[in-house]
Amino acid sequence: MDAATHTDPATAETRLQLALSAGRLGTWSYNLLTGEQVWDAQQYALFGVSPELQPTRELFEQLVLPEDRVAIELASPDLRPGARHAGQFRIRRTDGQIRWLISHSLTVGDATGRPVELVGVNWDITDQKLAEDVLLNNAEQLQLALDAGRMGTWRYDLRTGQQQWNARQFELFGLPPDTEPSRELFASLVVPEDLPKIGFTDEDLRPGHFHDTEFRIRRPNGEVRWLTARSFARHDAEGRPIERIGVNWDVTERRLAEERMLTTTRELQHRVKNSLTVVQAIAAQSFRSAKTKEEGLAAFTGRLQALATATELITRGNWATVAIEDIVAEIIKPYRDAGSDRITTTGAPIRIDSKNATSLGMALHELCTNALKYGALSNDLGSVAISWWQEEAWLRLHWQESGGPAVPARPGKGFGTRLLAGGLFDPGTGSVEISFEPAGVECAIRVAIAGSSAIRS
């Protein structure tokens, strides 16, 4: 051997002890023939026992937690000369501390090939195990948060263009999990008008900067969904951006709710404005047509109540549509005697737009008021029949009075009659035709059905 590479045994032993000490490794040997064990000082320190104590296999097993003893069992293959054995296990030291150890051992044989000794090392990996537990716990918490928020995660390598998606990301985009993700695929699913929202600027690639955006995608099945994205750039040691990491989650329901709220707010503003106009007109006409102040106040109050009732039905239906049977039932309630069948109603369930519900409610109120003052409800014998049905895109409602006082051939036209004749529905949304027949007043009302394409003329 070259003298330059020769190391004497004393030097080698010194180096070995330095390495063992630096790594805090405990060494041990176990004579398979006599059962005798030899531990070095670090091995005693690892197990927290006095160096004066004679180490034995029994002592060693007693210090290992019962559920981990399977890791230190020696099977026949482990006892073949040259065989190596490794394992991790927990011990309870004499001071009560529980520590994680890792063991590596080698089986040594004699000249005949018989196994005679095990030699090995142990070292403490408790801190590593605790760190792994923290990482695992953090990973589980992160996964729980991602699952709760139904979030998809992604990574985009800025150098190679490669992307990685988790399973949820594929679900968000309506793609099978074996699809190869790419920037081109992602961009092809984004609604064209929203493409500018997914681009990255130099500002977005700054260290510590988060990029937030919302955009629409069109899934392969044609469904359009709203997604929110939040991402940041990861940089190399020289500060160059090398990767973007981000999350996406579906906010379609929230966006739809916001749109509904905006529509409702606009509708409310419009209706408040219209209601004030209607109240002003009702007040002016009610008092102008009345013979006395009391009569005018009664007419005004009744019409306001009808307006309030119709508005309540509209708000109950979330400003969308209202059932015709609800409108009729609420308006005629004050005019219907308990247990009496003087007012009958028949008709199928039909819904009309909320903006027409107020007009229909006012029309029914005027008919009821006129019937009570002058018509079929002004005596004890008269009756009113209200029926409705659908005819193409229209609701048809028929009002028929009978049994009341004879109707004058040329009745006067008060505000109620004028309101019925032409002041209730917007053009193309409804109409009222009233006929003063001798046997009783008849009225035919036509109203556009909700969601229909009724003629706007």
- Any idea what the radius of gyration is? 45 Å
Structural class: alpha+beta
Query: What is the count of distinct domains?
Result: 3
Unreliable segments (pLDDT under 50, ≥5 consecutive)?
A: 453-457
- Helix tally equals 11
- Helical content stands at 25-40%
- Topology order in helix (H) and strand (E) letters: HEEHHEEEHEEHHEEEHHEHEEHEEHEE
How many β-strand stretches?
17
C-alpha termini separation? 112 Å
Strand residue percentage: 25-35%
- Within the largest sheet, what's the order of strands? 2-1-5-4-3
Please give the CATH class of the largest domain: Alpha Beta
**Spatial shape:** elongated
Q: What is the fold-level CATH name, i.e. the topology of the largest domain?
A: Heat Shock Protein 90
Tag the structure with descriptive keywords.
17 strands, elongated, five-stranded antiparallel sheet, single chain, Beta-Lactamase, 11 helices, alpha+beta, 457 residues, disordered C terminus, Heat Shock Protein 90
